[in-house]
């Protein structure tokens, strides 16, 4: 059933963003995607945007809001480095921080004023929990940890205007079904949950049997 609700998903061409886009479309939402290439096949329409570029984010949000007000925003844009802590230079650190944390801040700065003016809106930030991940991922974990604090502080600031900001902290590896259902619940329902970091259990790692080795 088609609704008149719209959600913006950053990182829409990624695994998490694409899964969320498909779920929302299946349930009648209008899905607008943002990604570096602008190629988001799971969205109704999409735009190219570098989430690290504050001016670009402001401009694309102005364009989208001019066409249709957004009911919700889901920031799922991220980046994964293949190097460990000691092998990663400052350029790599900045790339991770500017994409995960900086991208979220840019998106909130651009969209929140519209939602505050309407006294309505949901902002959901993906900030995974890497504590059980076997590979070294201190950079991604650091950026996600910053988002936890940001969601609580910024969420408390705009809650009085009925703009509900929350961070989702799914364990890695991510259970896509559980995560996307939680995103949908927070976006679709008027739960008045705000300024929270919500933990979600991770997917079970597939065990390798002797026949598969």
UniProtKB/TrEMBL annotation:
Transmembrane segments: none annotated. Keywords: Oxidoreductase. One of its GO terms (molecular function) is oxidoreductase activity, acting on the CH-OH group of donors, NAD or NADP as acceptor. SUPFAM superfamilies: NAD(P)-binding Rossmann-fold domains. InterPro entries: NAD(P)-bd_dom_sf, SDR_fam. It comes from the Bacteria. Pfam families: adh_short (PF00106). Belongs to the short-chain dehydrogenases/reductases (SDR) family. This is SDR family oxidoreductase. It comes from Hominibacterium faecale.
């Amino acid at each position: 059933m088609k609704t008149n609700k719209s959600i913006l998903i950053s990182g829409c061409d990624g695994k998490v963003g694409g899964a969320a886009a498909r779920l929302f479309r299946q349930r009648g939402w209008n899905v607008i995607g943002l990604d570096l290439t602008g190629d988001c096949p799971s969205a109704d329409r999409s735009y190219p945007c570098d989430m690290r570029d504050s001016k670009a984010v402001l401009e694309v949000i102005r364009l989208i809001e001019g066409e249709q007000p957004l009911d919700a925003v889901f920031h799922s844009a991220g980046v994964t480095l293949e190097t460990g802590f000691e092998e990663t230079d400052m350029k790599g650190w900045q790339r991770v921080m500017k994409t995960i944390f900086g991208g979220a801040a840019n998106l909130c700065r651009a969209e929140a004023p519209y939602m505050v003016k309407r006294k309505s809106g949901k902002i959901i930030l993906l900030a995974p929990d890497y504590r059980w991940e076997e590979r070294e991922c201190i950079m991604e974990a650091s950026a996600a940890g910053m988002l936890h604090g940001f969601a609580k502080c910024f969420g408390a600031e705009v809650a009085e205007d009925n703009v509900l900001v929350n961070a989702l902290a799914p364990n890695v590896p991510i259970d896509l079904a559980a995560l996307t259902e939680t995103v949908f619940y927070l976006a679709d329902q008027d739960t008045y949950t705000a300024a929270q970091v919500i933990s979600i259990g991770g997917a079970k790692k597939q065990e390798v049997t002797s026949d598969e080795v």
